[in-house]
TrEMBL record:
Protein name as catalogued: Putative cobalamin binding protein
Residue span(s) of domain B12-binding N-terminal: 1-88
Keyword Methyltransferase: yes
InterPro entries: Cbl-bd_cap (IPR003759), Cobalamin-bd (IPR006158), Cobalamin-bd_sf (IPR036724), Met_Synthase/Corrinoid (IPR050554), Meth_synthase_dom (IPR036594)
Keyword entries, A-Z: Cobalt, Metal-binding, Methyltransferase, Transferase
One of the protein's GO biological processes: homocysteine metabolic process
Highest rank taxon of the organism: Bacteria
EC number in record: 2.1.1.13
Keyword set includes Protein biosynthesis: no
Residues covered by the B12-binding domain: 88-210
Amino acid sequence: EDLVQQMFDDLYDGLKEEIEEGVNILLERGWEPYRVLTEALVGGMTIVGRDFRDGILFVPEVLLAANAMKGGMAILKPLLADTGARTIGKMVIGTVKGDIHDIGKNLVGMMMEGAGFEIIDLGINNPVENYLGALKEHDADILGMSALLTTTMPYMKVVIDTMVEQGIRDDYVVLVGGAPLNEEFGKAIGADAYCRDAAVAVETAKEFMA
Ligand code: B1M
């Protein structure tokens, strides 16, 4: 679709209003919110990520792209969340200490809410105390951790090890995700599951709550 191609360009250029307009047009054309999210927004961010990696784009440009993406996500959020599903579980989610990437985490939170989970979003840069405090305070079922950097993903193990030390590891389902992770890493650090994307996170969480 031409519009999606245009949105890839607009996201690349960090044009928030244009992205918001594009999202609205796709919705008017009858696209499912989830399709708009994955094909137009996540698809566009993949291109940004590639050129960021290759040194063609730099942090300021990527920040603008992220800001534009968030504008589009804000429109989709109520649509994804509006399923009227009853609460099937409570999840604390946050990006780990040292890491400020939050788009993927936000997306997981949105999709989980849409599926009927209650989400306690701790934001970015979370030390272990934040996670453990929130799990207890909210009597949560699931801990979700996100990391986008190879340098911050080991911190997930610090959190899980601390839970083991305190004897509370088995009180919660621990799900982890983020671009540099994989199944093997999830197993190695003692998580219950690695979730490749938001849809998998929802499915996995549902299975554990069943
Ligand atoms: Co950053 N960055 N970044 N960045 N950035 C990456 C991650 C990188 C891969 C880019 C690259 O070089 N190719 C690279 C990491 C390399 C590495 O570690 N090996 C990188 C780097 C190096 C950095 C800086 C160090 C750059 C610098 O300063 N020199 C710096 C680090 C800052 C810090 O955190 N301390 C930095 C900064 C930034 C910005 C601030 C500019 C911006 C973030 C804005 C924001 O989030 N508000 C940014 C962005 C946008 C990216 C890329 C381009 C896109 C990330 C993204 O939002 N993807 C990224 C490139 C890439 O990932 N290929 C990159 C879209 C999102 C929907 O996908 O987050 O993977 P993702 O989430 C998915 C799944 O992973 C999964 O579900 C989500 C939805 O499907 N998932 C979970 C994620 N979390 C989950 C949790 C769960 C379950 C599933 O819990 C249950």
